[in-house]
Model the fold of this input.
Amino acid sequence: NTQENYLVKNRHAKIWINPGARSLKELLAMNSKANLFDAFKEKNVYCYSKNDTYYWEMMSIMPDALLQDLIWITHPEMRNGQQLHFYSLLE
Done:
């Protein structure tokens, strides 16, 4: 089963990016197994979905901002309190 393989391979990932939900509650409603992933348990899930129009319009002309978001998500110590451009932490 593809879902089971995905769970086995990614269960302990520290970060989950772009699950396609606007909140952790919505993500759990979309996939009841979401709470089996460490990133979900640790509330370390990021998505652009809170502002998807801006994301799709601007990411191609602002690849530096997109890359900066991904760097800051994976290395939060480099962020120094600055806001992410496209992504937000799901609550």
